[in-house]
């Protein structure tokens, strides 16, 4: 079932599961040492798919006159069945509902740039290194309500 919750609405089990999935992917599997849990979690909307546990996730939040999202992840055992596309649909719905008047800016890992281009994101500038991984800034116009 797809859910969108603020930080304070998350159960302790949901919080554990989303942190577990994020750390397993972005720190352990990608071998990146950085502070994965940060203050943005407190202000974000957390969009996720939960069956018996959370298997797809992203967070969405307002930042400096735009809206952004990140920590986009699907559990490796659940890849290839369309959850990534469903996740993006739910992320964009959350943005349209809560932040539709704001433009969208993201910092995407370069290897998934094409995925975001499918949803109308445009590349801005040159790739840069963030947390030891090549990233690219991408933008999308506001999703008017």
TrEMBL record:
Superkingdom of origin organism: Bacteria
Pfam family, one: Acetyltransf_10
Keywords carried by this UniProt record: Transferase
N-acetyltransferase domain ranges (all copies): 5-145
InterPro entries named among the record's database cross-references: Acyl_CoA_acyltransferase, GNAT_dom
UniProt GO molecular function: acyltransferase activity, transferring groups other than amino-acyl groups
The protein's name in its UniProt record: GNAT family acetyltransferase
